[in-house]
Design a protein that fits this description.
The chain is mainly α. The chain has two helices and no strands. α1 packs across α2. The radius of gyration is 15 Å and the shape is extended. The two termini are 25 Å apart.
């Protein structure tokens, strides 16, 4: 039985300068553009969860726990 959550596919428009910056970082980190975006979003969620007051509920993805 596969217990891995399904991935969600999205389409997003990025400003060209942001696209270039992320692409350059991906090259530096030797990973794909998409993997770089995923890493950056995961880091953002971690940082936001750390900055949240301790009594505030949620899973870090906008859903209440």
């Amino acid at each position: 039985m596969n217990t891995t959550p399904k991935a969600h596919k999205i389409t997003v428009e990025l400003p060209h300068d942001l696209w270039e910056s992320v692409r350059a970082l991906a090259d530096e980190h030797q990973r794909s553009f998409v993997k770089e975006l995923i890493w950056a979003l995961q880091e953002y969620v971690k940082r936001e969860r750390r900055s949240r007051p301790s009594g505030e509920k949620g899973d870090g993805y906008g859903k209440p726990s």
